[in-house]
Amino acid sequence: MYPYRISILIVFLAINLLEAGVVRRSPSNDLLSDGEQKAKVALQRCEKSYQEAKARQTHAAWAYGSNITEYNLQQKTQAAAEFAAVAKIVAEELRQYDYHSFRSEDLKRRIKKLTKLDYAALPKDKFKELLKAVAKMESKYAKVKVCSFKDKTNCHLTLDPEITEIMATIREPEELKYYWVEWYNKAGKPSKAAFQKYVELNKESAMLNGFNNGAEAWLGEYDDPSFEQQVEDVMTQIKPLYEQIHAYVRFKLRETYGPEVVSEEGPIPMHLLGNLWAQTWENIADITSPFPRKKLLDVTDEMVKQGYNPLKMFQMGDDFFQSLNMTKLPPAFWEKSILEKPKDGRDLVCHASAWDFFATDDVRIKQCTRVAMHDFFIVHHELGHIQYYLQYQHQPIEYRRGANPGFHEAVGDVLSLSVSTPKHLKRVGLLKNYDEDEQARINRFYRSGITKFVFLPFAYTMDKYRWSVFRGEIKPEEQNCRFWQLRSQFSGVEPPVVRSEEDFDPTAKYHVSADVEYLRYFVSYVIQFQFHKAACQLAGEYVPGDAEKTLNNCDIYQSVEAGNKLKEMLSLGASKPWPDAMEVLTGERKMNASAILEYFKPLHDWLIQENKRLGAHVGWTASDKCVARKFDFLSYEK
Question: pTM of the entire structure?
Answer without folding.
Answer: 0.85
